[in-house]
Amino acid sequence: MQKILVSSLLLVGFSAQAQDQDNNPDKALELPNMVVTSARVEEPENEVGSVMSVITAKEISAKNINNVADALRTVPGLDVVRAGGVGQQTSLFMRGANSNHTLVLVDGIEMNDPSSPTGAFDFAFLQTDNIERIEVLRGAASAIYGSDAMGGVINIITKKGAGKAKINASAEGGSYDTWTTKGGISGGTERVNYSLEASRYETAGFSSADKSLGNLTNNAYLNTTVSGRAGVKVTEALDLGMNLRYTEGKSFLDNCGDRYCDDPNSYGNFNELFSRGFGHLKLFDGVWEQTLGLAYTRNDRNNKNDFDALNNFRSLATNLGEKLKLDYQNIIHVHPSNTVTLGIDEEADRLSSGATSAYPDFAYFSSSSIPSKSMNTLGYYLQDQIKLFERSFTTVGVRYDENNRVGGRATWRVSELYTLKQFGTRLKANYGTGFKAPTLNQLYDTIYFTGNPNLKAETSDSWDVGFEQDLFGKVTTTGVSYFNNNFKNLIQALSPIYQNQNISRAKVDGVETFLEIRLFTDLSFRSTYTYQQTEDLDTGKELLRRPKDKASFDANYQFLDKAYAHINVLVVGQKADVDHNVPGYAVLNFATSYDVTKELQLTGRIDNVLDKHYEELYGYATTGVAGYGGIKLAY
Domain spans of the chain? Predict the structure, then answer.
């Protein structure tokens, strides 16, 4: 009966789309979506051999979410883990790789923090403000992006203003005394474009250390974000632009994720700045494109802990990480079937950290620091993209990076897409190598004495094969990918000395699948499933915090021409954690909106509709059933 029902639905959808195209003959001529992350060159998504996912502003709006980590939860091959509520440490594992093996970009600016102990990006503070789309590239990408991209890339692209000036504002409130306010302006002419958005998010939160273990103190969180983008066309051949994103806030913390972990006086302050200016020049009627950019990022974080009943000492930890990066890229359109990309970039990382602690009456006082340390990396890359007969799309790339602390490293990548247009089939295959240079903290930590200046770079090789298939006149699209990752020289600090060493090896393999059904223009479904096996080759055990199974289901329905509903089900299997196994769970979420007028929209969201108790990390809490409502204005 189920098979008959599904077949009937698909046939209905096929008939509906066929009729829609008869009534709208231009619809079949819609241009494909363009992406930039796979090859650092704008190209149609249906000509990319790499395994990618794209999350649009429309999807983010439909789910009515404020944090980028929550937008990434349903992407195949990605596991998001948060140590409590919004604003707590949030890690992402891509295809089983460590959290510091994923490069995070915003408009081409590297967001990974040079002062982080491992170089991992913490998604805790990244809001969805001013985002046009998020492109997720899975698999080793060091051959085009260098270090940090050993597992993949997440590229966030902000909105580009166009047309007459548009003003937007929104406000939302709900559970846990949560309030969000936003406002922005955007617009542009043939010569100038601009967009600017600012937001304030605050919540009283809930106890990050699970209440079921006796922890009762809520952990509040405050976030202010300003995001802007501007560009000017100086001549028909020359464009200049500037991107900026600034975030500051405060997050209250708990000591751990177990019993008696409440800490009412522990909190962290953060200030993050990401900026880049660039010039883009086209020569010889666009045959030769050049881009010169200069980016500066600054991550300033400090954690404070004062005296209280559970804590008999006062402590302060400060971390400042800065990155200055100069990049120069050339794109040469040799022929409509051949594009060559070559470039050079140099980045300088700087770290300074300190820690102090004092007991009552200053009976004991200690202070330690990591003196200002820096690291430079110079990289060269070359890539060739070849199209044959509009069927075969091949990308081959190679890169060499010279790091003044750990020496040189060459990486390469090859990607192939072969299409069988008459069958609606796309065959994909990728192979690449990756590396991750040790961080300044891993090399020179003198606070906890884990630093080891003799560390080497971590390395990997990864490959995947798969296909995508359109069915019933593109009413349905499905895809399957098998991936395999091998990691060597992984950095780890083990007892008894707890000094960083290149001693670990790991392997991961698995399968990612997705199914999309677009029955009508106002009704669509998407489901994903990921199965992965992970193994620490030194211990034979599973890698921590990576579930074997993860699935999601999303349904979108527009009705009455003005109302919109979104349903999400997220299912995560059991996973290993430190000294514990974390049980699997399933969560139901719901979001809706209603257009009162063209300028006014009402929104609503319910998280964890069934009020399930679950954990993403052992001992750390997650939201119970929580409701939020808001209003959006656009002029």
Answer: 1-30, 31-634
**End-to-end CA separation in angstroms for the chain:** 49
Q: What is the mean pLDDT of the chain?
A: 92
Total Cβ atoms within 10 A of residue 236: 8
**CA count, 13 A, side-chain hemisphere, 205:** 29
CA dist., res. 244 & res. 267, Å (int): 27
Chain CA centroid to CA 256, Å: 25
**Do the beta carbons of residue 209 and residue 258 sit within 8 Å?**
yes
User: Does the predicted model carry a pTM greater than 0.90?
Assistant: yes
**Is residue 66 classed as helix, strand or coil in its secondary structure?**
coil
Considering the four listed CATH numbers 3.40.718.10, 3.40.50.2300, 3.30.565.10, 2.40.170.20, the one that applies to the domain covering 31-634 is 2.40.170.20
Helix or strand (DSSP H, E) at 62: helix 57-63
Q: What is the pLDDT of residues 39-72, one digit of tens each?
A: 999 999 999 999 999 999 999 999 999 999 999 9
Q: What would the mean pLDDT of 71-92 be, rounded to a whole number?
A: 96
Residue type, 392: S
Nearest Cα neighbor of 273 from 241, 227, 223 is: 227
Q: Which among 285, 378, 295, 281 has a CA at the least distance from the CA of 330?
A: 281
